[in-house]
Amino acid sequence: MQVSKQDYSKVEPFVAVPDAVLSEGIVYVSPARTLLWVDIYRAKVYRRRMDTGVTDVFHADGSGSIGAVFPILKRSSSDGNDTQVEEFLFAAKEGIAHGQFGGSWKYVVKYSESGLDSERLKRLRSNDGNVHGEDLYIGLINDFDQETTDEGVIFKINLVSKKIDVFWPRISIPNSLYWVGEYMFVTDSMNSCIWRTKHGFQEREKFIDVTQYSTDPEGNLPEPDGSCLSSNGELLFVSIWGHSKVQVFSTKDGALLQEILLPEETPRVSCCAVVGSDLFVTTGSEHLGTSKVGQPSKGGCLYRLSDVIPESDEFSTRGIIYRDD
């Protein structure tokens, strides 16, 4: 089947962050009309208010890194009241922490409570995750100063009891997690695939093999990175790290339907979020993993791609945590 392409290779950054290293984990919070994303390497959370255009930054000094952010809204916010995102949970080096814009942060759950080997945990850091019902799922990978192995893990943390369990015992680079109906989708970057499962690791099946659609003349394997669903859950938008593109797959049969091309100077496409008809895409710096890390670059910016999905409704692209007033 012929795959359609949308060419945004000439688009300019929507939010330029010249010293960013690894912008990731973008989420749109519909009731607040707010985008949140992180710079994993610099341990920062960014907030962009779509109504005002104001961008705020929270730095979790001493946290090691931030793999993902999980917005918190007051329960009344679901009815349209008090819809500012001020508080959030985030995945730090050693566990899940609570933070607040303009405030401090503290751990609420430590990964050490899982019973996983302590030496193994020292070699890991948080990566991507999501909230589903009362549970928070978070993937861990080898830290920046470690060799990538299959020591990674996905934890399941109950937000009420704070109980933490090993959900996926071994994985190299776990990335975005989503649910459609009875199925959970787990991104496995190093294996260039997306798993589908009803009950976890033991019953997984390889649903999307991204290597089938690689056209890199140098033979660089495509790494599926952060992703998002369409409002009806029928489309999965997957950022392809190192290939300057987002691929769109069907969640019904795993078929590749479309490719969205981004500027070649920012090949490290890291995550995306659908907002109405537009697609917002984060990127990583080309200096990551080199002695030039932290030097100014176009990588690390946020792109806004207009009219990717015509006439789409706005919705929250990941799970929101609601608390009582």
From TrEMBL:
It holds the Pfam family SGL. Coiled coil: none annotated. One of its GO terms (molecular function) is calcium ion binding. InterPro entries: 6-blade_b-propeller_TolB-like (IPR011042), SGL (IPR013658). Residues 22-284 form the SMP-30/Gluconolactonase/LRE-like region domain. Belongs to the SMP-30/CGR1 family. This is SMP-30/Gluconolactonase/LRE-like region domain-containing protein. It comes from Zygosaccharomyces rouxii.
